[in-house]
Inverse folding.
């Protein structure tokens, strides 16, 4: 009898946890955020953990804004920043995790599970960063936005939000008018982005903005087929988005540092191939694809 009561209690707790997760997922899909920031508040929260790497020479330089995956900023962000700096661009690495304490005690796993900080909500970080570039002494036009995984989802969500006109969830108002923010963006560079459930990026984007979506053929974390379908839908809407696939690699192939239990592995040859493709695209030449 005692064992039966214990089992019933455990089942009740499990049911309650499941209900909370379902409700929270529904909240995220609906885009409801209980607390909102003004653009000034979001800037004050994020900017102490930004990392800006400038190329040599007198500016103002063109810029690239980099957004990490759901596990936070790691070595691959430095690698991509160096690529842009070598091309004469300043690279701004936006850390969305540390200001929210999402880089502590494995809390980032809740981001990866879609329970905290969805791409739609994180898009407010990117909007604030784009608006802040001139204040950092950088050119505010022809900006390249690079997003890896969750960061790619974030970048695409912002494009849909700019076209729609409503500010990202969790941001009270736009830091600049949507058309002005959209005019800052030159192109997107999307590394194995998330394109699945809860993504609302498959919508109209501001005219002229496109980019390169680079997928991992054997991705076990995000679905390459879903991303190819999304890219096809966007292309049908007139979005100039190219798709390229790196064969024989898994999600996060360009990242060395990861959690101990992660099944993902760094792949040097694939990373070199991706760097060549991204460098060609960033320079304005599609020949490397």
């Amino acid at each position: 009898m005692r064992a039966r009561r214990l089992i019933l209690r455990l089942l009740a707790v499990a049911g309650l946890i499941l209900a909370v997760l379902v409700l929270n997922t529904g909240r995220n899909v609906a885009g409801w955020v209980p607390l909102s920031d003004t653009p000034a508040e979001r800037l004050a929260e994020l900017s102490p953990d930004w990392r800006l790497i400038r190329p040599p020479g007198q500016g103002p330089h063109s810029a690239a804004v980099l957004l990490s995956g759901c596990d936070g900023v790691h070595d691959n962000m430095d690698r991509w920043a160096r690529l842009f700096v070598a091309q004469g661009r300043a690279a701004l690495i936006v850390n969305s995790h540390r200001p929210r304490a999402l880089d502590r005690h494995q809390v980032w796993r809740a981001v990866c599970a879609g329970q905290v900080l969805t791409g739609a909500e994180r898009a407010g970080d990117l909007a604030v960063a784009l608006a802040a570039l001139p204040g950092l002494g950088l050119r505010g036009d022809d900006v390249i936005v690079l997003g890896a995984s969750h960061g790619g989802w974030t970048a695409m969500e912002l494009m849909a939000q700019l076209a729609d006109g409503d500010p990202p969830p969790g941001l009270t108002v736009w830091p600049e008018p949507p058309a002005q923010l959209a005019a800052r963006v030159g192109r997107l560079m999307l590394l194995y982005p998330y394109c699945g459930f809860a993504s609302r990026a498959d919508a109209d984007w501001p005219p002229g903005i496109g980019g390169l979506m680079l997928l991992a053929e054997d991705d076990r974390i995000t679905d390459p087929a879903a991303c190819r379908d999304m890219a096809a839908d966007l292309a049908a809407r007139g979005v100039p988005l190219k798709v390229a696939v790196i064969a024989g690699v898994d999600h996060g192939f360009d990242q060395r540092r990861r959690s101990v239990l992660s099944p993902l592995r760094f792949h040097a040859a694939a990373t070199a191939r991706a760097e060549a493709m991204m460098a060609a695209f960033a320079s304005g030449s599609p020949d490397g694809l």
In short: The two ends are 67 Å apart (CA to CA). Confidence is low (pLDDT under 50) at residues 5-28. The CA atoms of residues 124 and 168 lie 5 Å apart.
